[in-house]
Design goal:
Blueprint: H1 11-17, H2 22-25, E1 39-42, H3 48-57, E2 62-66, H4 69-82, E3 87-91, E4 104-110, H5 119-128, E5 130-141, E6 147-149, H6 153-168, H7 179-185, E7 190-200, H8 203-219, H9 221-228, H10 234-249, E8 254-265
Helix pairs in contact: 1-8, 6-10, 8-9, 8-10
């Protein structure tokens, strides 16, 4: 069940992850939250979504879970900076959650299942720790469904390379389309499946998205793993980074990312 986290925690990765909010990344869940709920946020990352969710369920408590203490410290820093006192922190494995049955009203995971060696086992664990009538909410991108204009050959190369490296690490980059099947395999029968997108098209958004990927393709763990595994050379990565910069500089540039979403009632 073990898998290697493809992205790592380089500044270029955190730049992307800290942009995420409950509004732009968990809108499908927000109408179902209410004051006093207890929430488990699996794979909380730098904690921006966690902190937003905490404000939605106060005085209920939210538990932020990460796989290492180092990763969890990123969320602690964010929550501390916002002065939120209703967040607990735990290190753990999504495949084997160290919580009793029926511990939470809601279990949430954003962009997590795509990185796990056994997403079905993780969903079973999320179901186990959710109280009867509670919700498991998951959202994952689907890399094969990313689309952009104009066609830039280096971006096609980037996509093929990312999929190759992510799968070599034990993950599934095209997770969005598979979420419903994984939920059914995990035993869920009451499931609402939706999708939503992020879109980067104006000059500011293109510069931000293209710039961070130009950096990620050269400096993040993804870059290191791609070179170490023989999937690409440093020269390849520089060429792909240049493609990202050319796309970002094009006034006609447009890119959309598809995400699959599930609300599973226990």
């Amino acid at each position: 069940m073990a898998a290697v986290y493809t992205h790592g925690h380089h500044e270029s990765v955190l730049r992307s992850h800290r942009w995420r909010t409950a509004e732009n990344s968990a809108a499908y869940l927000l109408p179902r939250l209410s004051s006093g709920m207890t929430v488990l946020d699996v794979g909380c990352g730098p904690g921006t979504i966690t902190a937003d969710l905490a404000t939605r369920v106060t005085p209920g408590r939210i538990t932020a879970l990460e796989v290492t203490e180092e990763a969890l410290e990123l969320a602690r820093t964010e929550v501390r900076a916002r002065g939120i006192a209703t967040v607990d922190f735990a290190v753990g494995d999504a495949h084997a959650l160290a919580f009793p049955d029926a511990s939470f009203d809601v279990v949430h995971a954003h962009q997590v299942l795509q990185h796990l060696g056994d997403p079905v086992a993780a969903l079973r664990e999320m179901r186990r720790v959710t109280r009867p009538g509670g919700l498991v909410a998951v959202r994952d991108s689907d890399y094969a469904a990313f689309t952009w204009f104009p066609r830039v050959p280096e971006l096609d190369e980037w996509l093929a390379l990312y999929q190759r490296v992510a799968r070599a690490n034990g993950g599934e980059p095209d997770a969005g389309r598979r979420l419903l099947s994984w939920a059914h395999a995990a035993g869920f029968t009451d499931v609402t499946a939706t999708s939503s997108t992020w879109c980067f098209a104006d000059e500011t958004d293109r510069a931000w998205w293209g710039g961070l990927w130009a950096d990620r393709i050269r400096h993040s763990d993804f870059a290191r793993l791609a070179v170490a595994g023989g999937a690409a050379t440093a020269t390849d990565l520089e060429r792909i980074a240049d493609g990202w910069r050319r796309w970002a500089a094009d006034p006609d540039g447009w890119l959309s990312l598809l995400h699959g979403e599930l609300i599973c009632r226990v």
